[in-house]
Amino acid sequence: MAILLVGLGNPGDQYARTRHNAGFRVADACGAKWGAEWKDWQKLGEYAKVCVGGTDVYLLKPLTYMNESGRAVSSLARFYKIAPQNCVICFDEVALPIGQLRLRKSGSAGGQKGMKSVIEQLGTQDIVRLRVGIGPKPEKIDLVNFVLGKFSAADEEILKPTLERAVGALETFLTQGIERAMGQIN
Predict the structure, then answer these.
(1) Cα(30)–Cα(80) distance, rounded to whole angstroms?
(2) How far apart are CA 172 and CA 186, in angstroms?
(3) Over the range 108-120, which residues count as b (16 or more CB within 10 Å of their CB) and which as e?
């Protein structure tokens, strides 16, 4: 059984360090630790195949922009015959404070348009998701401007160990299962 681990974000240097690219940052951290060699996936994204604890893991960063993320996810999942229940989607969550992580087996998109696209393309809400806290959003800032804004230096200091915890939780998920991983970080 293979696992598809997806980090959601937007392509391009202008988005590289934004809050909305927290999912890309998780995928990059996993790839760095697991020795990933990124390649093009049908002009829809960048992907790599790694092995973690005996499990084949396909890492994917869709390059379709956030709102069309499901196109890249469904394409790779279909090609490698990976069921939606064996996909893990990592994305930013404004409702969680920076530094917090939440791992769930299923659920709605919760207003996150990239996750909404993935749910629509895979045809189910039964998709594991790892939400990375980027909040709280200040009252006087528009949501779009907030998520497309860059992390402050102080937030980057919080994010670094958060990404390490995310990678650890994903390794636990891959080697010991979802329940153990949820207990580790939720």
Answers:
(1) 20
(2) 13
(3) ebeebbbbbbbbe
- Residue 84 structural domain: 2-185
For 23-165, strand residue ranges (E) read 39-41, 45-52, 55-62, 87-97, 101-104, 128-135
Annotated catalytic residue 20: yes
CA distance 161 to 167: 10
Model pLDDT for residues 73-115, shown as the tens digit of each residue: 999 999 999 999 999 999 999 999 999 999 999 999 999 999 9
| Domains of the chain: total | 1
19, 20, 71, 129: which is the annotated catalytic residue?
20
Question: CA-to-CA distance for 27 and 15, rounded, in angstroms?
Answer: 15
Q: How many CB atoms lie within 10 A of CB 156?
A: 12
10-41 pLDDT per residue, tens: 999 999 999 999 999 999 999 999 999 999 99
